[in-house]
């Protein structure tokens, strides 16, 4: 018994390993959501082709419809066939390019697991870290820091906006005050200009009066002689 257990040391480790088995590969056959997508496309394409009926098509070409209806109907059939073929080919290219079937099947799987955890009372905390992908672990690790940085950035932006609003009001108030000071200053300048004008006129009149007095004194002096 001892030799058997020592000869196969990996057997005990395999039984005690906490790692879950690798997830099953995602099937490429259309699942529920992929099937609904294809069904929706087929219904939309069918409605489009029905809208392009022969009656509507021939109404656009009344002369050929009257003289060569068989040829016109053949053209109509070829046109619809080409339209359907092109639409289906383009749809298949998009599905292949976007890997839509695998992605939708993966979504079906994730939704099924989520419903299973919900029905059995399991939360996100029950998911073992070693079952997550590197990207999921990376996002889970950075999410709290990014959220904290986002909250701090929003607080700074809000504070800056409030400061800008206060500064704007302050500048507006200072502009109004400057306008009032300018108005008062213009009034003072106008008063000073009026005073200067009056003073100039008074000085001119005073000089004339002095000249008249001087002339009277000279005339009086001559008459005394």
TrEMBL record:
Transmembrane segments: none annotated. Residues 18-30 have a biased composition (Pro residues). Residues 150-177 form a coiled coil. Its main location: nucleus. This is Nnf1-domain-containing protein. Residues 1-14 have a biased composition (Polar residues). It is found in: Chromosome, Centromere, Kinetochore; Nucleus. PANTHER family: POLYAMINE-MODULATED FACTOR 1. One of its GO terms (biological process) is chromosome segregation. Residues 1-33 are annotated as: Disordered. The keyword Disulfide bond does not apply.
């Amino acid at each position: 018994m001892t030799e058997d257990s020592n000869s196969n040391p990996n057997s005990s480790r395999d039984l005690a390993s906490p790692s879950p088995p690798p997830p099953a590969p995602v099937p490429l056959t259309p699942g529920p959501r992929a099937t609904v997508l294809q069904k929706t496309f087929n219904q939309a394409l069918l409605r489009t082709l029905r809208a392009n009926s022969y009656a509507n098509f021939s109404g656009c070409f009344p002369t050929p419809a009257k003289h060569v209806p068989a040829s016109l109907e053949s053209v109509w059939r070829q046109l619809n066939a080409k339209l359907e073929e092109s639409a289906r080919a383009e749809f298949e290219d998009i599905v292949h390019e976007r890997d839509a079937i695998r992605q939708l099947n993966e979504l079906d799987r994730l939704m099924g697991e989520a419903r299973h955890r919900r029905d059995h009372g399991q939360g996100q905390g029950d998911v073992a870290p070693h079952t997550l992908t590197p990207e999921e672990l990376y996002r889970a690790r950075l999410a709290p820091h990014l959220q904290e940085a986002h909250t701090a950035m929003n607080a700074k932006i809000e504070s800056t906006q409030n400061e800008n609003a206060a500064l704007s009001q302050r500048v507006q108030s200072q502009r109004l005050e400057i306008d009032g000071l300018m108005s008062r200053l213009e009034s003072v300048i106008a008063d000073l200009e009026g005073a200067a004008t009056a003073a100039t006129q008074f000085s001119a009149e005073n000089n004339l009066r002095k000249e008249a007095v001087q002339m009277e004194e000279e005339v009086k002096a001559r008459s005394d002689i």
